[in-house]
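Practice problem 4.
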């Protein structure tokens, strides 16, 4: 895997334990990862923003999450679930947005099926915003 860095922008209004735990998971896998608190905006949904320096998400996701588990999509799901857990019964974020250096954005929510994670690992999300279409069971540009 080419050297990539990950920045997790965590809503400051939420307990930071889940973000710090997932940062440590990435670091344990040899990825340079930082966690930064993001001020909460009024009326905005509390979403976690995960920035990766890779220009394209697909090779990054495959390589990184392939390192964490035999099946990359299971490791990606565990990472997202870890961020969405809230920890200790606290309020959880509404979603996780993975964004590449080229601007591709993939939004994960707590209710996604395993199929969404399987497809996300191979998704070429360069420059578009992608959301899961549950009716069609596929990622679509927003």
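Answer key:
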């Amino acid at each position: 895997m080419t050297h990539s860095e990950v920045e997790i922008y965590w809503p400051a209004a939420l307990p930071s334990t889940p973000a710090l735990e997932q940062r440590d998971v990435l670091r344990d896998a040899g990825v340079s990862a930082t966690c930064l608190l993001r001020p909460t905006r009024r009326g905005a949904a509390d979403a976690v923003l995960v920035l990766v320096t890779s220009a394209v998400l697909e090779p990054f996701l495959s390589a990184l999450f392939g390192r964490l588990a035999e099946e990359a999509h299971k490791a990606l799901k565990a990472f997202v679930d870890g961020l969405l857990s809230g920890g200790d019964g606290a309020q959880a974020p509404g979603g996780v947005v993975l964004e590449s250096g080229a601007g591709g954005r993939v939004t994960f929510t707590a209710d996604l099926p395993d199929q969404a994670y399987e497809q996300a690992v191979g998704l070429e999300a360069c420059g578009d915003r992608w959301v899961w279409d549950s009716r069609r069971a596929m990622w679509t540009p927003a």
